[in-house]
Amino acid sequence: MASEKKSEATRQRIHAVTAELFHRKGYLSTSMRDIAAAAGMKSGSLYYYYESKEALLAAILNEGIDETIAALKAALAELPHGSSVRSRFKAAMVTAMRRIANSGDMAVASSRTLELLREADYAEQARHRQAYNRFWRDLLDEGKKRGEIRSSLSDVFASMWAIGAMSFLTEWYDPNRSSIDEVAEEFVKLLFDGITARKRQAGAASKTS
Which domains does the chain have, with CATH numbers? Predict the structure, then answer.
């Protein structure tokens, strides 16, 4: 039992330093030797846990998505009972974007990262990503059932838009210009209010009637 705990602790340490290196230096610029040194172990010992850098990447990506889903569910659980789906969506987006800002592709894998995986690892990663996608679709479906989101909205397209916009956060987000909360609020406005000037359209319609 003690050896199992030690092994798991070592594995978690490997994951932590590897995720940091991949995020800071990039996957291609990080070697197994770099990872071993950062983890305070010999390269041979690292290969005892993972046979390759690809296998280590797959493990970190899977763990990152699982932890993100858990964080999203925890964020919703902290909201007051009866909170609107709009407020639930914002809380989830804030949580997801904070993780992405801190961990990049390690939190929610992007297409750039996925193409580095082996075929078997890609299939396993797809299963984890489906669970992440399902979280957002379930939230949209909840909004439909509660009458906050129109029933004709495509869950697939809406979730793809939200996930895609957040996934590229690290490429355009500037904390000196706006906070994560402010960005999430703008995303929620786009999703729930759209971009149409409804009042203006309504006024134009009344003049022609």
Answer: 1-50 (1.10.10.60), 53-208 (1.10.357.10)
Question: Is 111 in contact with 160 (CB distance < 8 Å)?
Answer: no
Among 164, 171, 170, smallest CA distance to 187 is for 164
Beta carbons of 148 and 85 less than 8 angstroms apart: yes
Dist CA 175 CA 183 (whole Å): 10
The residues, ordered by sequence, that sit 6+ positions from 104 with a Cβ below 8 Å of its Cβ are: 22, 23, 170
Contacts of 73 (CB under 8 A, 6+ apart): 135
pTM across the whole model: 0.81
pLDDT tens column, 172-185: 889 999 999 999 99
Of 56, 77, 84, 202, the residue nearest 142 (C-alpha): 84
